[in-house]
Amino acid sequence: MAQGEVLEFEEYVRTRQDALLRSARRLVPDPVDAQDLLQTALVRTYGRWDGIADKRLADAYLRRVMINTRTEWWRARKLEEVPTEQLPDASVDDSTEQHADRALLMDIMKVLAPKQRSVVVLRHWEQMSTEETAAALGMSAGTVKSTLHRALARLREELESRDNAELGVRAPEREERERCAA
């Protein structure tokens, strides 16, 4: 390539690099990969620069090189899949119920006093022993046990009242039904 064409290519890259990088970023999601893609395309275009008769079409040519390069990279990627004759029994976990249960539990926890909430969190979520919980909260093991018992009873009570509210059953009607059943 002649010295004049090298200077012409350098000038082209200098003036068009930002626009070309934006095009590369549209082709690949990672910014570092986009820079690599543009560099690779520029190297490939540099070798054929003298063959581009109409330099006004250089952007189109370079973008085509970027698209082809990205396609080559995609084809060359390593697949982690291994073909087998038998498909494994794969079940997809639906975590919707877990998220709903967790949201309900977090909401119900608001009815507890701070001390009760602390005991429940340390014992059940942090899975600390009674002694560890007592040491962490500065209370006796017996106080931890009784506080936990009251807190769990309060949580059950709140959960039951919410279940009944969802079913549209009011407390007086429920009590009346229980009396009639007895």
- Radius of gyration, CA atoms, in whole angstroms: 34 Å
Q: Which structural class do you get from the secondary structure elements?
A: mainly alpha
- Our count of helices gives 8
Query: What is the strand content?
Result: under 5%
| Average pLDDT rating | 84
Count of distinct strands: 0
In helices, the fraction of residues equals over 70%
Distance between the amino and carboxyl termini: 101 Å
Structural account:
The protein is mostly helical. The chain contains 8 helices and no strands. α1 (3-27) packs antiparallel against α2 and α6 (130-137) packs across α7 (141-167). The longest helix has 27 residues, at 141-167. The chain is elongated, with a radius of gyration of 34 Å. The termini are far apart. The model has no long low-confidence stretch (mean pLDDT 84).
Give a brief outline of the structure.
The chain has helices at 3-27, 31-46, 58-76, 96-108, 114-125, 130-137, 141-167, 171-181. By secondary structure, it is an all-alpha fold.
Keywords:
0% strand; mainly alpha
Topology readout:
Blueprint: H1 3-27, H2 31-46, H3 58-76, H4 96-108, H5 114-125, H6 130-137, H7 141-167, H8 171-181
